[in-house]
Design a protein that fits this description.
CATH class of the largest domain: Alpha Beta
CATH superfamily of the largest domain: Nucleoside Triphosphate Pyrophosphohydrolase
Number of helices: 8
CATH architecture of the largest domain: Alpha-Beta Complex
Order of helices and strands: HHEEEEHEEEHHEEEEEEHEEEHH
Bound molecules: zinc ion
Strand content: 25-35%
Number of domains: 3
Radius of gyration: 22 Å
Length: about 300
């Protein structure tokens, strides 16, 4: 399976939308899209929850959206899709369930989950980017919501995405998982961390694994990616091979790290002594991939404690 195919299995990573990015600065075209009877608008409530019904997002039409400020997200065929910048009231969709990203991701059709992550990620950036990072003056959104311009020094600000590596490290018949103190009891996950300035992805994998567990990585391979708008990450999933199994908890980020064999994971999930991250996460996918490859086991058939 290619990386593109693997990524499409990750929640939030599927998009059926043509972003039409080259049209965002064409104000007349954007206004015409907005006025189109086919236009649809995604709105969140004041707690960043979106309306969901029967596995699909509920979208407002142009009449219901009125002239509320909105970000142009793209085109579904001929239908323009916008994301509203201001909260909408629940009575807009009395029949919908209002769900946050984590709850909505697994129950939505894959392309709607992707749309949700995209709309929310853009709003997260706008919420956190009110003032110019250079001179402190207020910013004005331009390019249909995809850029912010400083009225004082003229600098343009771009939506930011923070790359984070997440990796399943293996050594012969075992993989390395760790747990943080704040997690639920008995929960273990693959190792992860943000990429630092001046660092390649491969170096970030090597450094994170060494810092958190003391284990030396010999080699790693990119596997798939997942938008992770909590608030602005992109998870980059890797598989890696370790030189040995010597664990030395170094930086205090993990309370425990262990080598798990495939049968150890299966036994732990069956008897409740082990929990994994939610299937929402790329960690779950990486562990699933490793179990399938090394032991022919389908993680989705095993009990979950989440
Ligand atoms: Zn400025």
């Amino acid at each position: 399976m290619t990386s593109a195919e693997t990524s499409r299995r990750n929640i939030f990573a599927v998009s059926a939308l043509d972003r039409a990015a080259e049209r965002r600065d064409d104000e007349a075209w954007i206004a015409a899209q907005r006025a189109s009877p086919a236009a649809r608008f995604l709105g969140f409530d004041g707690e960043a929850r979106a309306p969901v019904r029967s596995g699909r997002l509920r979208l407002l039409d142009a009449a219901a959206a009125g002239d509320a400020p909105a970000n142009f997200l793209g085109l579904y065929g001929d239908a323009p899709v916008f994301g509203l910048r201001e909260p909408v009231a629940h009575d807009a969709f009395a029949d919908a369930e209002w769900l946050g990203l984590r709850a909505a991701g697994p129950v939505l059709a894959p392309d709607d989950a992707g749309l949700l992550a995209y709309a929310r990620g853009l709003l997260n950036w706008q919420d956190a980017t009110r003032h110019c990072a250079y001179c402190g003056a207020p910013l004005v959104l331009v390019s249909a919501g995809h850029r912010a311009s400083c009225g004082s020094c003229g600098r343009l600000h771009f939506p930011r995405t923070d790359p984070a590596v997440i990796v399943i490290v293996e050594h012969h018949d075992a993989c390395l998982l760790g747990r943080q103190t704040a997690w639920r009891e008995r929960q273990y996950s693959t190792l992860a961390g943000f990429v630092e300035p001046g660092e390649s992805l491969e170096e970030a994998v090597r450094r994170e694994v060494r810092e958190e567990t003391g284990v030396e990585v010999i080699d790693c391979d990119y596997r798939s990616s997942q938008p992770w708008p909590f608030p602005a990450s992109l998870m980059l999933g890797f598989t890696a091979t370790a030189a040995n199994r010597d664990i030395r908890l170094a930086d205090g980020e993990l309370e425990d790290a262990r080598w798990f064999t495939a049968s150890g994971i299966v036994t732990g999930l069956r008897d409740g002594s082990l929990r994994l991250s939610s299937p929402l996460s790329i960690s779950y996918r990486l562990i699933g991939h490793w179990l399938r490859l090394r032991a022919g086991i389908d993680l989705d058939t095993l009990p979950r404690a989440d």
